[in-house]
Design brief:
It is a single chain. With 466 residues, this protein is of the alpha/beta class. It starts with a helix and ends with a helix. The protein contains 18 helices and 14 strands.
Length: 466
C-alpha cells in the first residue's frame, strides 16, 4: 500500500480504478518527481482526466497537502477538471468525503480547491508543506496568474502541472517548451501517439480516400473510446489539411507554425471562440459567399451589432438558393443588411434573395477601396477591417472549426505600390489550400463601408481595447 500511495500512476489504477495509457503514467510520475511539468496535447488526449487523478492522489498522499486548480474561465474549472474529479470519486477505494462543486476537504490544511480569476493576488495566500497547482487550458491563463503562482512556489514541496492545447505560440506556456525549457519536464501528446491510433501513421491517413463511411474497418480500432479516434483525425485531415494551424495544434500537439504573413493571428481566433451573450434585441447583419460548381461551399453568416456570430451555415448543393433564403428568413425581423459578393454568379444569386424580400446589398470586392493608397481593392480593405476587429477582441461566438481554420490561413502582402493585397484563391490553391468560402462569408458579414472604421479599431487596439 505504501508503494501504491507513493506512485500516482499506481494510485490512479489500483485505488481510483482508472486504465491509464503509457504517457499518462509518465506524466503523473513526473508530477511526483519534478517541480514543474508542462503538457501540450492534441484534442481528447485524456490530459484533463489525468490532472484530476493527480489532484486526488496529491491530497490523499500527504496529510498536509493542498491542491489548487485553475483555468481561464470559471466554467472550465467547474465543468472540465472538477467534472473529472466528480466522475472519479465514486470509483475510489480510498474513502474521500463528499465534494462540493469545486472543493474537496479532507481536513483543515488538507484539501483541493478550484479557482478562476484574473487577479493574481488570489494565489498568493496559499502556502503548505505540500502544494500542487494545476493549470488546465494553460495557454489562456493570464500572465499575472503565472507570476503569482511562481511566488507561491517559493517555499515547501511545490509541484506545478500546466496542460493545454498548444494554440498560442507565445506566452508563459509556450516559453515552458522553448526559452524556459530547462526548468520544465515537458511532454507532447500527438494524436498518433494515443492508443486509438496505435499502428496508424500520417501516411496511412493520406492514403485513405475521401468520404469513407463511419462503419469503415479503418475506424474500428477504439480500445479507449473516450480518447481521440481514428475517424476524427481522418475527418480533420480533410477539413483542415495538414498545413493548417489547427491541424498542428489540435491533432499533432504542436505549436502552430503560422506564417508571418498570416492576416489573422490564431491567438485572436481562439479568443473569438468566447460564447456570445445571446442578446435577442440587437440588429443583425449578414454575409453570403456564393460558390461555383465543385467542392466549394456557399456560406451564410449572421452577426449582431456587437460583433457576436449568431449563426453560420454552409451548403455544397448545386443550387442552394432556397436553402439560403430560408436560413436568412429566420432572422428577417432584425436583419438590417446582407452583403452578397456580386462578382460572377453571386449577382443573380443575390437578385433571387432580394426577390424573397431580404435586404440584400451587392458588394464587389474587386472594386477600388475607399483608401486606395493603402489597399489594393475593397477585398483587402474589408479583410483588414476584419483583422482589426479580431485584434481588438470585438468578435465572439466563432465556434465553426472550418471557418477558424480558413481565417487562420488567409495571407496578405504589400504589392509594388505599397498597397495591402490579400492572397488570391488561385494562389492559395497552388499551395494546397482550399477555397476559403466560410472565411469570406465572415468577412462579408463584417464588411463595413463606414468612413474611418479601420482607424476606429486601430485606436481601440492602441488603447488596449478600452
Amino acid at each position: 500500500m505504501a508503494r501504491i500511495m507513493a506512485d500516482p500512476a499506481l494510485f490512479a489504477e489500483c485505488v481510483l480504478g482508472c486504465d491509464l495509457w503509457w504517457m499518462q503514467r509518465q506524466i503523473m510520475r513526473s508530477v511526483a518527481a519534478t517541480p514543474r511539468t508542462a503538457v501540450k496535447a492534441c484534442h481528447a488526449s485524456g490530459k484533463t482526466m489525468m490532472a484530476a487523478l493527480a489532484v486526488l492522489w496529491w491530497i490523499a498522499r500527504y496529510k498536509d497537502a493542498i491542491a489548487i486548480t485553475t483555468a481561464p474561465t470559471w466554467e472550465q474549472v467547474r465543468d472540465l477538471l472538477w467534472g473529472e474529479i466528480h466522475k472519479a470519486l465514486p470509483r475510489s477505494r480510498f474513502i474521500f468525503p463528499p465534494a462540493n462543486q469545486t472543493e474537496l476537504r479532507l481536513g483543515a490544511g488538507n484539501y483541493a480547491i478550484g479557482l478562476s480569476t484574473n487577479r493574481g493576488v488570489r494565489f498568493q495566500g496559499f502556502h503548505a508543506e505540500h502544494l500542487l497547482i494545476v493549470m488546465d487550458e494553460a495557454p489562456g491563463v493570464e500572465g499575472d496568474i503565472w507570476e503569482a503562482i511562481e511566488g507561491a512556489r517559493a517555499g515547501g514541496q511545490v509541484r506545478l502541472l500546466a496542460l493545454g492545447n498548444p494554440t498560442i505560440a507565445s506566452g508563459p506556456f509556450h516559453d515552458a517548451f522553448t526559452t524556459n525549457r530547462d526548468g520544465w519536464n515537458t511532454f507532447t501528446i500527438d494524436a498518433f501517439d494515443t492508443p486509438n491510433l496505435a499502428g496508424m501513421s500520417l501516411d496511412d491517413i493520406r492514403a485513405m480516400r475521401r468520404g469513407l463511411p463511419e462503419e469503415s474497418p479503418e475506424f474500428a480500432v477504439r480500445p479507449r473510446p473516450y480518447l481521440v479516434t481514428r475517424r476524427w483525425v481522418y475527418e480533420k485531415f480533410w477539413e483542415w489539411g495538414e498545413r493548417s494551424p489547427l491541424w498542428q495544434a489540435r491533432v499533432r500537439g504542436r505549436f502552430p507554425e503560422q506564417a508571418e504573413d498570416a492576416l489573422i493571428s490564431l491567438a485572436w481566433l481562439e479568443a473569438a471562440r468566447q460564447p456570445a451573450d445571446g442578446n435577442h434585441e440587437t440588429r443583425l447583419y449578414g454575409g453570403v459567399d456564393v460558390a461555383g460548381p465543385g467542392e466549394d461551399e456557399t456560406c451564410a453568416v449572421i452577426r449582431d451589432e456587437s460583433g457576436a456570430i449568431v449563426a453560420l451555415k454552409a451548403w455544397q448543393t448545386a443550387d442552394p438558393r432556397g436553402d439560403v433564403a430560408a436560413f436568412l428568413a429566420e432572422f428577417r425581423a432584425r436583419l438590417q443588411v446582407v452583403n452578397v459578393d456580386s462578382v460572377g454568379i453571386g449577382y443573380n444569386f443575390g437578385l433571387h434573395l432580394r426577390d424573397q424580400g431580404l435586404p440584400i446589398e451587392f458588394v464587389n470586392v474587386g472594386e477600388t477601396s475607399r483608401d486606395s493608397a493603402k489597399f489594393a481593392n475593397a477585398k483587402a480593405e474589408f479583410f483588414w477591417g476584419l483583422r482589426m476587429r479580431f485584434e481588438a477582441g470585438d468578435i465572439r461566438g466563432l465556434a465553426d472549426e472550418i471557418a477558424i481554420s480558413q481565417l487562420a490561413g488567409i495571407r496578405y502582402r504589400h504589392n509594388p505600390r505599397g498597397q495591402i493585397q490579400i492572397e488570391s484563391k488561385e494562389e492559395a490553391r497552388k499551395r494546397g489550400v482550399k477555397s476559403p468560402d466560410r472565411a469570406e462569408a465572415v468577412m462579408l458579414a463584417f464588411a463595413d463601408r463606414t468612413p474611418g472604421i479601420i482607424e476606429y479599431y486601430r485606436t481601440m487596439v492602441e488603447a488596449g481595447g478600452e
